[in-house]
Amino acid sequence: MADDADVIVIGAGLAGLVATAELVDAGKKVILLDQEPEQSAGGQAHWSFGGLFFVDSPEQRRFRIKDSRELAMQDWLGTAGFDRPEDHWPRQWAEAYVDFAAGEKRAWLRAQEMRFFPVVGWAERGGYDATGHGNSVPRFHITWGTGPGVVAPFERRVRAGVARGLVQLRFRHRVTGLARTAGALDTVTGEVLEESAAERGTASSRAVTGAFSYRAQAVIVTSGGIGGNHDLVRAQWPERLGTPPAHMLSGVPAHVDGLMLGVAEAAGGSQINRDRMWHYTEGIQNWDPIWAKHAIRILPGPSSLWFDARGRRLPVPLFPGFDTLGTLDHIMKSGHDYTWFVLDQRIIGKEFALSGSEQNPDLTGKSIRDVIGRARADVPAPVKAFMDNGADFVVEKDLASLVRGMNALTGEPLIDEAALRREIVARDREISNPFTKDLQVTALRGARKYLGDKLIRTAAPHRILDPAAGPLIAVKLHILTRKSLGGLETDLSSRVLAGPGGGPGRGAPVPGLYAAGEAAGFGGGGVHGYRSLEGTFLGGCIYSGRIAGRAAARAVG
Questions:
Q1: Number of CB atoms found within 10 A of residue 239's CB
Q2: Backbone angles phi, psi at 418, to 5 degrees
Q3: For residues 141 and 114, is the Cβ–Cβ distance under 8 A?
Q4: Cα–Cα dist 212/179, whole Å
Q5: Pair 452, 63: CB distance under 8 Å
Q6: What is the rounded distance in angstroms from the CA atom of residue 488 to the CA atom of residue 169?
Q7: Rounded mean pLDDT of the chain?
C-alpha cells in the first residue's frame, strides 16, 4: 500500500506548524491533522502574550542587562530541580535549549520577520539564593504582534507548502489510534468530526461523521497538554501540592484535553513527569469570556500586597511575579484556593498587564501610537474594563468599604478590617525612608533600578492608603490551569522513547514516532523540570518543533 504522505503531523498548534514548515523546507509531503476547525490554527499560541526567552540579546544589552549562557543555565538548573532518573533527556534538552536561546534563536526568528518589543520583562524573579529558582536578570521578550505574531511566520510557511502541493490540511480529524507495520509506526486512524463554524477558542461539535486512516513513514505528535481537562489535571495533581483545588479557572480552551497523550502511550510511547504542571495563581474571571471558565492571568508588578483568603500577608519571597509554584504550594496549604491583591489606582495603572493577545490590542495590532497612549493612560483600557466589569474586582474610596466588599464577594466574613489595616499601615510606614526591613519594599526599589521596570512596570514607592493614590482596589485571585510540564519522553532528535525510559539503553525509540511542543513536555518529556523561567513555552514549542521536523525529514529520506 502506498503512503499517503511522508510524514503525518498531529496538532496544528505552534509546534505542529513549525514541524510542518521544516518538513516543507526539506521537500517532504505532509498531512497536518487537527480536531478543531481551521480557524483555530495556531492553537494556544494565538492567545498568548508572545513572550520569548532570549539570552544576551541586543534588547537586553541596550538596557545594560549583562546576561550569559552560563548565568541562564545556572538559573534554569536552579529552577528545574532535576532529581529523577527520567530527567536524563529533559536535562539534555535544557542544555540544548539554553544554547539555542543564547545562540541562533533570535537571528533565525528575525529572518522570518519576527520583531520584539524593546523593553525586556522580568518574570519569575525567584527571591531565593543565586542557585535557586528564578531569573537573575530580565529575559522576557514580548513579540511585536503578541501570540499571532509568533504564529504568523510558521503558518505562512505551511500555507506556502499547501500551495506547492506538499501539505494537506485535515482539520476536524480527531486521532484515536496509532498502529505499526513490521514494527514501525506508520498508520494514523481516527474520526472525522462534523464541520464547525465555531469561533476560535469556543467549543466545537464532537459529532462524528466518518472515519479516516492515513499512512506515512513517520508521525509527529504535537497535540498539546491537558490544561483544558480539569478532570485529568486533578487526576495528575502532584501529591507535594496536597489536595487539588475544588475551584479552578481555565487559561486554555477545552480542546486542550490531553487525550492524544493517551493514544501515543497506548502505541508504546513513554509518558513521564505527569505530576509536573504549571498553573498560575493570579487568575481572574474574564468578564467577556471566549471559552468555558475562561481566565485571564494578571502579570503584576512588585507593589501589590498579597493576602490569603483570611487577610494574612503571604510570606517572603512570595511577592507578585516572584515564584508561581511556590505561591501555589503556599495557597494549597492555607485551607482556601483563592487569594487577594490589595493595591491602589496608581499601582494598577502602572503595574497591571493582562496576559493574552486579545487583552493587548496595541501590541497585537502592532500600533506604536496605541502603545504610547497606553503608557500615558492613568489605567490602560483593558485593565479599566476589568475594574468596571470584572466579577473579582472591588473598588472603593476607603479601607472599611473595601473590606466589606471583599467579604461580600466571597460570602464569608474572613477579612478583619483592623488586622488588614495593621498590615497595610505597617508596610506604608516603611515607605518614608530609603531604608526598610520589608523585603517586598526592598524588591520594588530594586526593580526600579532596572530602567525597563521604572519606565513601564513599577510604580514609584508610595503609601497605599494615601488618598491621592486611590481609589483602593482588591482583586480576588483564582488558580488557573495552563501548562503540562511533563509529556512524551523524547531523545534529542524528538524520537519518542518506549518503555520506562530514564537513561541510555532503558528506552529505545519507537520507530517512526516523534513528539514536540507541550505533548513532549516542550522537549524530552519535561525540559522545565518542576518550574519554568517563563517565556520558555512558546520557545520550547518552536525549538522542539524545529528539531522534530528536521529529524523526521532526515529519517524518511
A1: 7
A2: -65, -40
A3: no
A4: 13
A5: yes
A6: 24
A7: 96
| CA distance linking residue 119 with residue 121, whole number of Å | 6
The pLDDT tens digits of the residues spanning 395-409 come to: 999 999 999 999 999
Cα–Cα dist 225/205, whole Å: 20
**pLDDT for the residue 2:** 78
Is residue 210 scored above 60 in pLDDT? yes
Contacts 24+ apart (CB under 8 A), 2-6: 2/215, 3/186, 3/215, 3/216, 3/217, 4/31, 4/214, 4/215, 4/216, 5/29, 5/30, 5/31, 5/168, 5/214, 5/215, 5/216, 6/30, 6/216, 6/217, 6/218, 6/553, 6/556
Q: Across residues 215-222, what is the average pLDDT?
A: 98
Contacts of 229 by beta carbon, 8 Å cutoff, 6+ apart: 254, 256, 257, 258, 259
Instruction: Give, in order, the Cα–Cα distances in Å from 505 to each of 219, 491, 497, 502.
Output: 23, 11, 10, 9
pTM of the model: 0.96
The grid coordinates of residue 324 equal 508561581
Name beta bridge partners: 396.
472
- Alpha carbons 113 and 93: distance in angstroms, whole number: 26
Q: If we measure between CA atoms, which residue out of 184, 167, 191 comes closest to residue 218?
A: 184
- Amino acid letter for position 359: Q
CB atoms within 10 A of CB 306: 24
What is the identity of the amino acid at 78? Answer: G
Render pLDDT for 447-486 as a digit per residue (tens, 0 to 9): 999 999 999 999 999 999 999 999 999 999 999 999 999 9
Distance CA 488, CA 484 (A): 11
Q: Is 524 helix (H, G, I), strand (E, B) or coil?
A: coil
**Residues 183, 81: contact at Cβ < 8 Å?**
no
Write out the DSSP string of 279-297. EEEEEEE-SS-SSTTBEEE
* d(C-alpha 430, C-alpha 17), whole Å: 51
Identify the pLDDT of residue 373: 87
Asked if residue 502 has pLDDT above 90, the reply is: no
Give, for 141, the enclosing helix (H) or strand (E): strand 140-142
DSSP percent split of the chain into helix, strand, coil, nearest 5: 35, 25, 40
Could you tell me how many residues make up the chain? 557
**Three cell numbers, residue 111:** 529572518
Convert the pLDDT of each residue in 94-112 to its tens digit.
999 999 999 999 999 999 9
